[in-house]
């Protein structure tokens, strides 16, 4: 978009700048701001892509890096170890396990290389300490527990690497749970999935219900000894999509002390055309593409976006979703998990640089700074503290 339409960008810039006053920006800077679903580790193995450098979405389709975190006032978040769902076989499990461990190692390497600017966080208290030291905060999470195979002891290994949040399943059913985008096999959690919840609680890892079927979500809330999170989800009241949840379940989640982190995806219908599919398939092969193929991909994607936008969802759509969640659940149960580098983003809001707009808008809506900071980090850190203190009461 930026490549072909620089004029639009120039014209839009003053209006966007007006939305965030200096006072709003200062407040945003002073708050501890976390996002609970950063898929950026999927870029950590890209040759030539350096988390420490500024990138432009219009050039490489990435949305998060250290300079942009600074520009958008994003203090940190949960960096995701994501695994695509594969075969439920011994061979499938070991391939997934190796992939997840390597992704975890890539996170360790990238944080170590940038140790003067970002630090791994292991406890809820680490966030304030690291923030005070002037560094960004890297928690870790698992999206799809498929790589554990049938071996729940692997959770301890990931815990020791720093994982403090995990979801059982992604877009297809697996050995632990039914996915919300697949046909019911277990009617919620499998027996192994129920044992997974107990092990998560024992270790002190936050249970993440995003991508779980409604039945699995209900069972996660009922079984978990500490409140669960939806790390990147949306309200069904916005758009009837399986990845969104209904108001009744949102109330159940809040009643159980849980938190829903607002997604930027599935807020309205998006482009599911074969042309879009083809572009996404090419994007998945980024690592194996030549520089010329990558340039062609970005050009083709830009042309398709100009012809038919992936989504018409913009900042206002997102705020409507967030304000709905706050109205239903209250400020103690809402946060941000916009799925950056995992398909997230809005029209005119391509990357994390625009985050101060959310603070500005919430202030305009009349929320106190204390409430806004709960949304930005207080709520998820409360969940982590609860997971920690529950684990501490048990033997390791
Ligand atoms: Zn996801």
Please write out the topology.
Layout: H1 6-19, H2 22-30, E1 34-38, H3 57-60, H4 66-72, E2 76-82, H5 90-113, E3 118-120, H6 124-132, E4 136-143, H7 154-161, E5 163-167, H8 191-203, E6 206-207, H9 214-223, E7 229-235, E8 244-245, H10 247-255, E9 259-262, H11 274-284, H12 291-307, H13 315-329, E10 334-336, H14 356-364, H15 369-392
Parallel strand pairs: 1-2, 2-4, 3-4, 4-5, 5-6, 7-8, 7-9, 9-10
Helix pairs in contact: 2-14, 11-12
The structure holds zinc ion.
The site of zinc ion has 5 residues, from loops.
Biggest β-sheet description: 6 strands, parallel
Bound molecules: zinc ion
The termini sit apart by 52 Å
Q: Write the element-wise H/E pattern from the N-terminal end onward.
A: HHEHHEHEHEHEHEHEEHEHHHEHH
Low-confidence stretches: 1-15
Shape: globular
Rg for CA atoms = 20 Å
- Average predicted local confidence, pLDDT: 93
Percentage of residues in strands: 5-15%
Helix content bin: 40-55%
Number of strands: 10
| Helix vs. strand class | alpha/beta
Number of helices: 15
In short:
The chain contains 15 helices and 10 strands.
Structure write-up:
- The protein has 396 residues and is α/β, with parallel strands linked by helices.
- The chain is 46% helix and 12% strand.
- β5, α8 and β6 form a beta-alpha-beta unit.
- The protein is globular.
- The termini are far apart.
- The N terminus is likely disordered.
